[in-house]
UniProtKB/TrEMBL annotation:
Lineage of producing organism: Bacteria, Pseudomonadati, Pseudomonadota, Alphaproteobacteria, Hyphomicrobiales
Organism per entry: Bradyrhizobium manausense
Domain of life of the organism encoding this protein: Bacteria
Record-given protein name: Aldehyde-activating protein
Gene3D superfamilies: glutathione-dependent formaldehyde- activating enzyme (gfa)
Domain CENP-V/GFA, first and last residues per copy: 5-125
A GO term for molecular function: carbon-sulfur lyase activity
InterPro entries in UniProt: CENP-V/GFA (IPR006913), Mss4-like_sf (IPR011057)
Length: 137
């Protein structure tokens, strides 16, 4: 068994531990992720919710994605760092921000989503599979 993925916000008020390997890891270039990250993409690893433990109280805000589904973004109310996302339509998954990992080098992106919204000034690994929007389920 591999060691858990651990991480949290910058000040340590929110911490998580995840048992198991990511189901999917991606760079997302949708406009919502661009705005939240302050750059051209967000980087995420998605896990089964069953293996996740979170300590600390996150502040959350809901937004509706292109699919019409609500995603809840969670951030630290103390330092403001975005840490994770959950999805009302998929309550069994938990998505962490790759940069929130204690060991960010464990993050291995598999694909780029919403490549249709890419900017020339934010080039990503050309070897990654690119999807114009979200990949088929």
């Amino acid at each position: 068994m591999t060691k858990p993925y651990t991480g949290g916000c910058a000040c340590g008020a929110i911490r998580y531990s995840v048992v198991g390997e990511p189901m999917f890891s991606n760079h997302c270039q949708c406009r919502d992720c661009q705005r939240e990250s302050g750059t051209g993409h967000g980087s995420y690893a998605t896990f089964p919710r069953a293996g996740v433990t979170v300590t600390g109280k996150a502040k959350t805000w809901d937004m509706t994605g292109d699919s019409g589904n609500v995603k809840t973004r969670a951030f630290c109310p103390e330092c403001g760092v975005a840490v994770y996302m959950t999805f009302k339509a998929m309550p069994d998954i938990f998505t962490i921000r790759a940069a929130s990992l204690d060991e960010p080098t464990r993050y291995k992106p598999q694909a780029v989503t919403y490549a249709v919204r890419a900017y020339d000034w934010d080039p990503l690994d050309s070897g990654l599979t690119k999807f114009e929007r979200m990949p088929p389920g």
